[in-house]
Fold:
Amino acid sequence: MNNIMSNLTSTVMSSLTRAMQQGWQHLTPERQASQPPAAQSLQLQLTVKRGAFTLELNHSLSLRGVTALFGRSGCGKTTLLRAIAGLDRHADAQIRCNDVVWQQGNHFMPVHQRRIGMVFQHSSLLPHLSALQNLLYGFKRRVKHSAIQLEPAQVISLLELQSLLPLQPEQLSGGQRQRIALGRALLSQPELLLLDEPLASLDQQSRNEILPFLQRIANQTGIPMLLVSHQLDDVVKLADQLVLMQDGRIISQGPLPQQLMQPQLAAIGAMSLLHAKSHGSSNHLLKLSIGQQQLQLPAPQQCDNANYSPTSYRLRIQARDVALSLTPLTDSSVSNQLQVSISGFNNAPHPAETLVQLTLEGQPLQALLTKQSAERLGLQAGQQVYAQIKAVALD
Amino acid sequence: MMPELFAALSPQDWQAIRLTLKLCLYTTAILLLLATPLAWWLALRQSKLRTAIQAIVALPLVLPPTVLGFYLLLLLGPHGAVGSTLERLGVSHLAFSFSGILIGSVIYSLPFAVQPLLESFRRMGPGPLEVAATLGAGKLDQLFSVVLPLCRGGFIVAATLTFAHTLGEFGVILMLGGSIPGETQVLSVLIYDHTEAMNYAQAHQLSLGLLISAFVVLFIVYGLNRRFEREAVL
Structure:
């Protein structure tokens, strides 16, 4: 046992040195191309009755990138995730991942045989093992049976774990523990990562420490993630697709930008997500383009770091930060002015307001106006207008 | 009387000491194997049977050892259900034999093995096992890589308490095994015999020995308890 451990430790350390020399080259696109296809399809048929609560699903989820499982607390998200993982066994459930049957009739594939990595809400580090031993717990067990997609050294550099490795779990902060838990799940060579509110037990500062790492994992490993969350902010920062749950049912699923236009989500916080291409920065201003149209935004601090210069950004825009005009404004301080067309109107939570659905180069955008303003401008579906964007959050 | 405390022990005394240690070691080994799955089931399963099983496990705590010994004698003796079946199979019945008192002490010390294990399994909870399972560890792997290290304190306390409790066993053995030298005459029974025969000096030697070893074992148990409480699970 000890021998294996020390062998592994020395393997890790030597590949670690290699990683340090090669920097981020471990995770170049060529390497990603050699990985197995990233999309996973999950077929779920599940009925769970617990007191007055019923979870009833018969769905097929196509998982690519980050899929958020979103809904209020108690809507059945965690129950669903635990059923997928095999942590709870429900009678008559059918669960298939790609062509592999995980549960059907009397067949029930035990948790440890499912190729999943799971990160729990609360710190889940095994308290009798050091951070390094925790990190390698799944790797040691899965490495015998499956091809390696991710090496310890890659994960250690991806999640910046090196200084934490010799420490014991009780010496780590909440955010650091979650980072080790994430790395540990990644190293168990999963085909699917299940994240059960991984940020919920963390304070705002630790949250902000973890989020960029989740984004890195999503961008650079290509392993599909199913992220359970009840925080729309986290979802919008991370997810590519959104599965909306309500009272034990899946009520809609699809790409996140389109899903954000759903009235149920607009009621929680009306916002839009735009994908923009980066054209570098000058004078601390980042130049972005969406289709033919240009934007300029204050460049984020990381842009100074030559190693980190993404080619595309996600722009989060609150509906209340978007104003509309019939003609381009020339005497306004707002410099990001985009030509959009109106595709429809939705009810806003406040009776005096309306949510105007817009299309910007094929991407959905929404603006929160008072009904009075909309009438004054005579806004109608199909009309071309100008959207002034007052504030953008970049990811 | 004091100098007699340091007189040499008789061969009969040594035989009783060896027999007692053998009984304690066998009981402890068997109970760890039996109590682990039982405590596991009690700690992690929600079942209607659980309350009944828990009450049965705790029975030896409240029953007079003579009652337990009496029923075991009926059951294991030549006319009992178990004893007569064994006789028919050509094996001798279990009353007044080492195997008989071994069964008696396993039952008598059961709560002392189950309780500390149950406590430590509960403290650990299902979380670490779920984590291990999602990382590819099967049931047996979980037992060795998670349960044993995390519940080490519980196992050590269960073993020492069982050992110490068997050391002090008297009523069950006297009822079920009598006092056959080399077979069922353990220390506590021999002390009784010495006293009956007015051999106070020999009784005192053995009693003092038992007193001191019981104190040492309990001292170790409480020391371990304190240490493992400090190693609280995160």
